[in-house]
């Protein structure tokens, strides 16, 4: 749209120069808007507007140990990604959790060639955000935008280090916002068609003014390379996570005490919102008067179109935070306020294992554990899943339990918790013990992969 407008002005200059003075005034008014035109070279370009951004985007180099070589193996180069300087005085760099989660050490290479050792201050697997620090030596922080103001059709640029090559800038548009259901974490993705490839993870998605609007995180692709569908964590969400990492070294999530689900389009009316499936007794939701069947359509001023939108708001809210909800009930929308409560730790215990001797007292030992009102066991060869799919099988679900209220079913195979992969019951036990607040299970059910948020 902007380029077409510029071309119209450029192609009409000679005619306008011969026109009446009133037309010259019109041109002056129009050209008062910044135009990405390089007068010196005679080309349309965003180079001048984006030149400084390159100094803020860095390459992240990780060292790690191959788990197949044992704990005494020497660290070696394990991968690379991108990162962005967000605070020059503190030497703070934001990147993706998955870039650094398995690293034994991290180094950062700046655009000017300087290399720094980096410290991982904290990570959040659920939003895939991590905070690093380096020595604050002549750094340039990127300017940050308000990602809540993004609209489909806005210009967007992805900048990072794809495939480990030199810094690369690609261009596209914002294809959509508020995307969820892509993985198994807390998701509120910006979707763009700017080319993003392996190695871009952790890099900046920026607007046409060079301001950071998101962290390039994932792509949708059958072959692993760019297919025109890429996803970025909105910078507003990332900054909320970073604020907690700065203060606590981790993210402390609260709960409101509801299980939510999409609205069935076949039920008639609008399919926008998050439908409450269950309300936990004594929870903030119950005390505020929320009921099963209510539809949450707004949270803290944000329109809620899907359960993922609501999870994105509540999922970054610290305990004690006040949340204002718009709730549709019986054809009318009412306002309800509640305060986010402290999280409940998931209690994990060893369960009797059929056909296997109990373990040594560690949850998951012997291949069976109990948690959330369900029992889990190691997957075995007789289970109806492909050999390469590993996880913990749901052996039973207790009536009235949190597991049942959330939709977990006997025969499901849990393969991940809050973005962390699990290969067996012991790993599931460890993952559940580390949960503080909401838990989202990534589950194989039949031939489908689904996400199940566990009632908190």
Automatic annotation (TrEMBL):
Residues 348-367 are annotated as: Disordered. Residues 1-19 form the signal peptide. PROSITE patterns: PDZ. One of its GO terms (biological process) is proteolysis. One of its GO terms (molecular function) is serine-type endopeptidase activity. Coiled coil: none annotated. Keywords: Hydrolase, Protease, Signal. It holds the Pfam family PDZ_2. Residues 245-331, 367-447 form the PDZ domain. It comes from the Bacteria. InterPro entries: Chloro_Bact_Ser_Proteases, PDZ, PDZ_sf, Peptidase_S1_PA, Peptidase_S1C. This is PDZ domain-containing protein. It comes from Alteriqipengyuania halimionae.
